[in-house]
Design a protein that fits this description.
By secondary structure, the chain is mainly alpha-helical. It contains 13 helices and no strands. It has one domain. The longest helix is centred in the middle third of the chain and has 30 residues. The relative contact order is 0.16. α5 packs across α7. The N terminus is likely disordered. The structure holds fe (ii) ion (2 copies). One fe (ii) ion (FE2) binds next to α3 and α7.
Length: 305
């Protein structure tokens, strides 16, 4: 087997194969959700405002996302793990293992990235603490509703991931030293986007729970994230930076902008018979597995496969 072929074997998980016996214990890689233990180097040369050509509002938006990921992903993992013992389907069991492995590694790397932000006087502890309060509130609801909240947040994270992987404006105006971690995270969000939903359905999740979860998450977690972003902006003395704020807000909120693009994915969630796989991202995932881990890929050297 030549080098390219060997590399392709390593980077292309045996995605959603249907040839294995359902009784055989499957690995998370065999169901297309491998945990890739990558330690990203500190972005030594990145500009302080790494996004959208030195734009503070956009950079602080990403910093606030990075701040809320570790507690958010811990919530996701706990809400799924709680039902792990009830899953009998071998494929879903393996997918859950992959989901937990991937999310745990995302949290670890965002913790490390947050140390970088804090060293640059962008205190990601603020959005993190606010989101912890929001998640504590969600934690008071019944476990299956908490899992529905995770389904909703995983759906919006998958929407965010598509933006990371397809938004050329974001990709071409942000510091390359910073981008690889976000690309890796985005790819894995798409790989595991159906897992929480499949677990929730397998334990009897009902449509009304998803609608309720949407309202709960928007009124707690989204408010906490937005507040955290606003506080970071205020602390950085950026609130009156009209010109740059207008540029950043246009990038995010223009038609099909970075955030409005995600809003468009909310409607299908409310439709009867919704499943995350209806938004087919498999080709995008294939492209990015190759771009990241293929021969000469962005982070080929960081991941042995
Ligand atoms: Fe994640
Ligand atoms: Fe996720």
């Amino acid at each position: 087997m030549n080098t390219v072929a060997r590399k392709r074997r390593n980077t292309q998980p045996e995605k959603r194969t249907r040839t294995a016996s359902p009784r055989k214990k499957l690995s998370s890689a065999q169901v297309g959700i491998p945990a890739r233990p990558i330690t990203f180097p500190k972005p030594q040369n990145a500009d302080r405002y790494f996004a959208l050509n030195n734009n503070p509002a956009t950079t602080l938006m990403f910093a606030s996302f990075s701040g809320i990921f570790p507690p958010g992903e811990q919530f996701f993992v706990e809400s799924v793990r709680r039902y792990r013992h009830q899953i009998s389907d071998e494929r879903l069991k393996a997918a859950v293992s992959g989901f937990i492995g991937q999310e745990s590694l995302h949290s670890r790397e965002h913790d490390r990235l947050n140390d970088h932000f804090k060293a640059q006087d962008m205190d990601t502890d603020l959005p993190e603490q606010l989101v912890k309060i929001a998640l504590t509130t969600l934690g008071k609801f019944p476990p299956r509703l908490q899992l529905a909240c995770t389904c909703f947040m995983e759906h919006t994270t998958a929407g965010l991931a598509e933006q990371w992987l397809t938004n050329r404006e974001f990709q071409t105006t942000s510091d390359p030293d910073m981008l690889n971690l976000w690309y890796w995270h985005a790819l894995e969000e798409l790989e595991h986007k159906s897992v929480a939903f499949d677990v929730w359905r397998s334990v009897g999740g009902r449509d009304y729970e998803l609608k309720l979860a949407m309202m709960l998450v928007i009124s707690t977690v989204w408010v906490a994230w937005l507040t955290g972003w606003g506080v970071l902006m205020a602390r950085d003395k950026q609130l009156l930076n009209w010109r740059e704020n207008a540029r950043g807000l246009w990038f995010m909120f223009k038609p099909r902008g970075f955030l409005t693009g995600i809003a468009a994915t909310l409607w299908p969630l409310l439709q009867k018979g919704f499943h995350p796989s209806q938004q087919d991202t498999s080709e995008l995932e294939n492209q990015w597995r190759e771009k990241l881990f293929g021969s000469g890929g962005h982070i080929e050297d960081l991941y042995a496969g």
